[in-house]
Amino acid sequence: MGDIGLLRLTLFSNTISDLINFKSGSPSTYENIGKVRTLGLEAALNVQLARNFYAFANYTLNDPRIVSDRNPDIEDNRLSFRNADSLNFGLAYETPGGLYTGIILRHLSSYFVNNTNTESLPGYTTVDLKLRIPLGGNVVFNGNLDNLFDEQYEQYPGFPAVGRSFRLGISATF
């Protein structure tokens, strides 16, 4: 897109034999799935809106299917916990000196939590804030405020996800 942006499209296909997959329940365990084929498409767009101001978005369509298994009842079903589509959209300000601040909207679609595809969790949307301040040399201050609006959702059945949270840190490279 010339000097103002970049558009990327990625088509992916993976076939995995003997996949180890999380299995919900009490207690939680893992299970071996005979063969899984994942097909998907990711689109990403980065655009410079003005000097030091940027917008970015990416969307991933994801279709992981169980191709074969010793349990024929789950064949051709979507693989649990991995079958969500995702959307990220953000606006950022970044200087050549390394100062960065951004706001990011993250959305995950509903997804199945079992391989029989009879139970699912609804999708959710969160908003995050990011900050990076160079302190000189190779030292950087980082700050994140995740889930700004304290969205309540579950990532696993019966277990609420972390609500609003923040992280502060200093990193150095040598």
Identify low-pLDDT runs.
Answer: none
Oligomer: single chain
Given the helix and strand composition, which structural class is it?
A: mainly beta
Strand elements, count: 12
Largest β-sheet summary: 8 strands, antiparallel
Rounded to the nearest angstrom, the distance between the terminal CA atoms is: 36 Å
Tally of separate helices: 0
* Strand composition percent: over 45%
Radius of gyration: 20 Å
| Main sheet strand line-up | 1-2-3-4-5-8-9-12
State the order of secondary-structure elements, H for helix, E for strand. Answer: EEEEEEEEEEEE
Q: Please tell me the overall pLDDT.
A: 94
Helix content: under 10%
- How many domains comprise the coordinates? 1
Q: Can you walk me through this structure?
A:
This protein has an eight-stranded antiparallel beta sheet with strand order 1-2-3-4-5-8-9-12, with no helix packed on it. The chain has a two-stranded antiparallel ribbon with strand order 6-7. The mean pLDDT is 94. 0% of the residues lie in helices and 65% in strands. β2 and β3 (53-68) form a beta hairpin. The chain has 174 residues and is mainly beta. It starts with a strand and ends with a strand. The chain is globular and about 60 Å long. The protein has one domain (5-172).
Topology:
Elements: E1 5-23, E2 29-50, E3 53-68, E4 86-94, E5 100-108, E6 111-112, E7 120-121, E8 124-136, E9 139-146, E10 154-156, E11 159-160, E12 165-172
Antiparallel strand pairs: 1-2, 2-3, 3-4, 4-5, 5-8, 6-7, 8-9, 9-12, 10-11
